[in-house]
Amino acid sequence: MAGKEELSLSEAIMAAGDAFHRFPLIKVQGVPLMCHIVHNWDSIWAFHPDPSDLLIATYPKAGTTWTQEIVDLLLNNGDAEVARRAPTAIRIPFLEIHSPPPVPSGLSLLKNMDPPRVIKTHLPFKLVPEGFWKNKCKAIYVARNAKDNLVSYYHFDRMNLTQPEPGPWEGYIHKFMNGELAWGSWYDHVKGYWEEREKRNILYLFYEDMKENPQREVERIMRYLDLSLADDVIRRIVELTSFKTMKENPMTNYSFFPKPVFDQSISPFMRKGVVGDWTNHFSPAQTQLFDEDYKRKMKDADIPFRTDI
Questions:
Q1: Contact 261, 160 (CB under 8 A)
Q2: Is 155 a catalytic residue?
């Protein structure tokens, strides 16, 4: 099963051939999105989830794949073989993603799955289809501190050959600060879900907390999902979702995406997975500039971010 799914997805991407390139961004309600998403926006916005569906939402490169794997293992009692049934992108479809044919869209994958489904999105809160909230779907949001998120996104945009050319690091910082990257402003993103977390019953997690004490956070997710797993199963899930294990797992490391899409010779999809790597990238002047801008944009938000642990 896993091998077949992996092959079919890779073959579909290869079949699309030259249709893959760095796609331009187009704004929806002020949020820059890849053009293929925008061209199919009406069908995305009209998506009606089942009340049993679970949404995993993040700003790009904030721990999405990590959280997807934790959830999938929790729902399958820590069974590693079941979790290897297919690549992450097949097991937990990416709601809004659209690519050149014959690559399947997130919506087409979801259409062929029976509820309850686990669904991934990078959409900011205001662009999430309203059906999720009308149907009182559960949602897990993972937030990562701005500086590390920026660094991770920069390296991702270098190797992801379907998003705009990132350009030099010095300029990328300003793109991030100005909300010019795909999926828009990090500041609006983290604040949007934070402000709605209690009203919408959103489990709001922090990447830094997950790194600091993964067992505690896995147990938090377990309780949110109304599950009760044995301690040894929880420990196994923590091991299976460690950065080292996932980096070596072909079902989670996106090695099933061929080079015309993700060129991992430029930068691996799973690069470091640490807290504080930003100190290796920001100059003192850039830190000061970023911190002053951050203070202005986050002055009314009480979100407890940490840039080290």
A1: yes
A2: no
pLDDT in tens, 220-245: 999 999 999 999 999 999 999 999 99
> Residue 37 belongs to a domain with what CATH number?
3.40.50.300
**Three-state secondary-structure class, residue 249:** coil
Say yes or no to pLDDT of 5 above 60: no
Domain count, the chain: 1
Set 21, 48, 98, 122: catalytic member: 122
Count CB-CB contacts under 10 A for residue 81. 8
| Among 94, 198, 212, 205, residue whose Cα is nearest residue 141 | 205
List all residues 6 or more positions away from 57 whose beta carbon is below 8 Å from its beta carbon: 120, 121, 122, 123, 125, 128, 139, 140, 141, 142, 193
User: Residue 306: inside a domain, yes or no?
Assistant: no
Distance (Å, whole) CA 163 – CA 174:
17
Mind listing the pLDDT tens digit for each residue in 152-166? 999 999 999 999 999
CA–CA separation, 96 vs 200, rounded Å? Answer: 21
Q: Which domain does 39 fall in, by range?
A: 2-297
Q: Could you give the percent of the chain with pLDDT greater than 70? A: 97
Name the pTM for this structure: 0.94
Rounded alpha-carbon distances, angstroms, from residue 196 to 133, 161, 200: 10, 33, 6
Q: Average the pLDDT over each of 96-100, 128-132, 149-153 and give the range with the smallest value.
A: 96-100
Cα(173)–Cα(181) distance, integer angstroms: 10
Q: Is the pLDDT of residue 10 over 80?
A: no
Handedness of CA 53, 145, 298, 172 (dihedral sign): negative
